[in-house]
Amino acid sequence: MKAVEFKAKIKSNRIEIPKRLHKDLSSRHKSIRVIMLMDDAEGKASDEFHQLTKEQFFKGYAKTDSIYDGY
């Protein structure tokens, strides 16, 4: 199996394959596998989640844990 990677924008619910890859597409390839990775939505909800995570993490931090800070 050969893997290729490219960035694309969805236009009218279609993903355009870059012209540089057209030569690799032929009738001999009966099927392909598509994996779609979408950028995470950045914003207020994400910032609030990061803040809550940090607060919860430090709730479990005790003063005596500072002996490990140098490692």
Give the tally of β-strands.
Answer: 2
Helices, by number, come to: 1
User: Low-confidence runs (pLDDT<50, min 5 residues)?
Assistant: none
Helix content: 10-25%
Work out the count of structural domains: 1
Specify Rg, calculated over alpha carbons. Answer: 23 Å
Strand content: 5-15%
In one word, what is the shape?
A: elongated
Biggest sheet descriptor: 2 strands, antiparallel
**Which whole number gives the mean pLDDT?**
82
Q: Describe the strand arrangement of the main beta sheet, using strand numbers.
A: 1-2
Structural class: mainly alpha
Pattern of helices and strands: EEH
Terminal CA distance reads: 44 Å
Can you characterise this structure?
This protein has 71 residues and is mainly α. The chain has one helix at 44-59; strands at residues 10-11, 14-15. The chain has a two-stranded antiparallel sheet. The longest helix has 16 residues, at 44-59. The radius of gyration is 23 Å and the shape is elongated.
